Amino acid sequence: MAAQTLLAQRKYFKSGNLRLSYLDFGGDSKRVLVLLHGYMANARTFSELAVRFKGWRVIAMDQRGHGWSDHSPGQEYAREDYVNDIWNLVQSELGGQPVTILGHSLGGLNAYQFAARYPECVTALIVEDIGAEINADFSFAGKLPFRSPSLKELRESLAGAGLRAIDYFAESVLEDEQGWGFRTDLKGLQVSVPQSNGVWWDDWLGSSCPILLIHGGKSFILDTDQARRMEARRPGTKLIVFEQCGHGVHSDDLDGYAQAVIDFLAAPDAIRSAQREEG
Questions:
Q1: Could you report how far apart the first and last alpha carbons of the chain are, in Å?
Q2: pLDDT surpassing 70 at residue 268
Q3: E strands, the chain, in order
């Protein structure tokens, strides 16, 4: 399994004035699964997951301000900027063919907003632990150092900011001539997060493709009552609650998460949707 993850190719495309990056895990299938990470993560957060989808071409994008993608010099991190990035990926790299999208947190919001605006481009969605009503607090990013002299001290800065999921946030670190820091555009987060917060029911209800909504019962971002309302209000939505998991279900229970997604993608409704688009 680990050897297969090394086969992912780093590729780039243009979205407006930014050069964005993605990992292409390959596969010759016409069915394409696009993976979108959450805040302060990057494409490699899905490396262990991506290789489990046999019969799919799997692509994981570094969203703007994350990973190997450019930081926006003008701090363009509005909702339409993220949605346009997905559009440009699909058009320039995939020839405009419809795709299935899996998104965690920020990526989940971007996924269902993209589907609402471009329903013809989406066959199915997997939305991980993000709501239709969002009120996230990433003010801690303003407390993090630009660079630390050691990886140990950088990790300690995360703990000092009150964070518990240290390993999740540590996935974003880099070392350069100035020391250890984060690939994420920390200043950009202060612009992006307030624009991600809001009430997005119109977008959640604005598409008709099958959706698998995955929720961690111990999440600090999405509460179970809202997740159940999201399922009840939107036809074609299936909710699975991982009671013992937090916000990052794909990392807390990789095996259970992967099986839930695989089962969903094999379900008749999702298959029929994909086949209609391929045909």
A1: 32
A2: no
A3: 9-15, 18-24, 32-36, 57-62, 99-104, 122-128, 133-134, 173-176, 179-182, 198-199, 211-216, 237-242
